[in-house]
Amino acid sequence: VVKTWTHLALVKNSTTTTLYINGVSIASFTDSVTYANDSVQIGKAWDANYWNGYISNLRITKGQALYTSAFTPSTTPLTPITSNATVYTSLLTCNDSYFKDWSSTNATITKAGDAAIVRTSPFGNYKITSTGYSYLFAGSGSYIVVADTLDIYAQPITIEAWLYPTTAGYAPIIE
């Protein structure tokens, strides 16, 4: 929905990939592909289409399918996930006043075009805390690149974020 914060989660668990919108499964399909480790572009797709809108709290979690049935999306900012000293979060970004990865991976993030950090988020605007941010992508040439040192495609994997599209139509958020 245009100009509305929406939680999106894509979960690949074994050979099944499920797409959740606001905690509800809207599509599920068989996916036996093993994806290669490569740099990640946020806000731009391989076919040079660009995202128009805000992205907040983008988290990639490997080795754990966070959602396997309907759920209630978090009402607070996302945090890195660990369990018994195992680190599951490969990337946590679009959530602070820096172009930065807040996971323990601390991957390098490079801004392209006019991608900007803005003081708005699905969790409200905060005056003092660092949780009221998102990244604004204004279409053509506006995206960020995450270094290819991440091993984000380990199975299972969960990719999730809060999205606020400013225009209707095709809207890539990550490639």
Task: Please outline what is shown here.
This protein has strands spanning 6-13, 16-21, 24-30, 40-42, 52-62, 82-83, 86-87, 89-93, 109-112, 116-118, 134-138, 143-146, 157-165. With 175 residues, the protein is mainly β. Strands 1, 2, 3, 5, 8, 10, 11 and 13 form an 8-stranded antiparallel beta sheet that branches. Strands 4-12-9 form a 3-stranded antiparallel beta sheet, with no helix packed on it. The protein has a two-stranded antiparallel ribbon with strand order 6-7.
Please give a structural write-up.
By secondary structure, the chain is an all-beta fold. The protein has strands spanning 6-13, 16-21, 24-30, 40-42, 52-62, 82-83, 86-87, 89-93, 109-112, 116-118, 134-138, 143-146, 157-165.
- Report how far apart the termini are: 21 Å
User: Residue share in helices?
Assistant: under 10%
- Mean pLDDT, to the nearest integer, reads 86
Classify the secondary structure makeup into a structural class: mainly beta
Q: Radius of gyration over alpha carbons? A: 15 Å
Largest sheet: 8 strands, antiparallel
List the secondary-structure elements in sequence, H or E.
EEEEEEEEEEEEE
Strand content: 35-45%
Count of extended strands: 13
Which descriptor suits the 3D outline?
globular
Please work out how many helical segments DSSP would assign.
Answer: 0
**pLDDT under 50 segments (min length 5)?**
none
